[in-house]
Amino acid sequence: xxxxxxxxxxxxxxxxxxxxxxxxxxxxxxxxxxxxxxxxxxxxxxxxxxxxxxxxxxxxxxxxxxxxxxxxxxxxxxxxxxxxxxxxxxxxxxxxxxxxxxxxxxxxxxxxxxxxxxxxxxxxxxxxxxxxxxxxxxxxxxxxxxxxxxxxxxxxxxxxxxxxxxxxxxxxxxxxxxxxxxxxxxxxxxxxxxxxxxxxxxxxxxxxxxxxxxxxxxxxxxxxxxxxxxxxxxxxxxxxxxxxxxxxxxxxxxxxxxxxxxxxxxxxxxxxxxxxxxxxxxxxxxxxxxxxxxxxxxxxxxxxxxxxxxxxxxxxxxxxxxxxxxxxxxxxxxxxxxxxxxxxxxxxxxxxxxxxxxxxxxxxxxxxxxxxxxxxxxxxxxxxxxx
Length: 387
Prior knowledge:
The chain is α/β, with parallel strands linked by helices. It has one domain: Alpha-Beta Barrel (TIM Barrel). It has 13 helices and 10 strands. It has helices at 2-35, 40-71, 84-90, 94-105, 116-119, 129-141, 175-189, 217-230, 284-298, 324-327, 333-345, 356-364, 370-385; strands spanning 77-82, 109-112, 144-149, 195-200, 235-239, 259-264, 267-270, 276-279, 301-308, 350-354. The chain has an 8-stranded parallel barrel with strand order 1-2-3-4-5-6-9-10, surrounded by 7 helices. A two-stranded antiparallel ribbon has the order 7-8. Helix 2 (40-71) packs across helix 9 (284-298), helix 3 crosses helix 4 (94-105) and helix 4 (94-105) runs parallel beside helix 6 (129-141). The longest helix has 34 residues, at 2-35. The N and C termini lie far apart (77 Å). Mean pLDDT is 90; it is low at 2-7.
């Protein structure tokens, strides 16, 4: 009796599995009919679409290879972004941090910020003390400076207007004050031997991120014209967007900057759907194709103005004190090394890393020097090899 029950149970399980397999096959078949229509016209249309996709990918790859080969003998410049306010947030001294970046890491270049709210907290009263010592140190060391200008600049909340400005009002009410501020910044530093470029309005059209209230293209055009009137000899870079759109980094419309920038993020925390870390499955040649396409159609180069090189923390954590094991899930020494190689593989020859203040904080405050040491080793390596 027991054997019969056991045999029947096995047969039931077998039949159950067969039903599951049949159900799965049925669902796959139904899904296949969507991808491959049963009608002849549908199959023709599907074949045309599939062929078009393959052709586009092949064309992108060809453009990418052309761009990489074209730039393979050009020197690779690797720099970092430095924001003194971020260093303070992390609990490290800004001057000590910047001195270590310049002297110990020995970077080729550095992107500095000129926050409106910090330099002109009271209308008409300018304080350049913070930016002055940064320029002085860069000049002494022979480090190139790319200076962020305008209202939107790196780090949250992206737009850094002072309290006495309400950017939600018509821009005619506050743009003259912004242009006056920008003029003061440009006139102060345009003759610095360290100044290599301006980065105008960081990721200006990225409306989904940051606390910004105005995205008028005409304002960006007018700001670009202002910069060129005041300093026609210095390159102006405009960064358009980031990973969030497949056309990121491809310049369209005015103003036609001297160079364009793109941010590259590979590993992030998906707070919307999966609640997990997500790695963008984008090969380096994808960005090469964007750079190459832009070069072909505009004659302008593309640089990586922001390469993710710091942790992306999940909700509920702050980067300054999150557990090290959590931080290392999105950025650790090994990932940092691979990230820099990934950027080099794009063929773009100018790369600014994002997160140097955090590497320093991890080293001096949390006794985790791995990120700093890796960055130092990789920067030294690329100074020698360059491509």
